[in-house]
Amino acid sequence: MKSVDQAVLAQLFTEARTHNVWQDKHVDDALLQQIYAAMKFGPTAANSSPARIVFVKSAAEKARLVDCVAPGNVDKTRSAPVTAIIAFDNNFHDQLPKLFPHADARSWYAGNDQKIARDALVNSSLQGGYFILAARALGLDCGPMGGFDAAKVNAAFFPDGKWSVNFLVNLGYGVAEQLHPRNPRLSFDEACRIV
Ligand SMILES: Cc1cc2nc3c(=O)[nH]c(=O)nc-3n(C[C@H](O)[C@H](O)[C@H](O)COP(=O)(O)O)c2cc1C
Question: How far lies 51's CA from each of 22, 33, 45, 130, 191, in Å?
Answer without folding.
Answer: 26, 15, 12, 11, 28
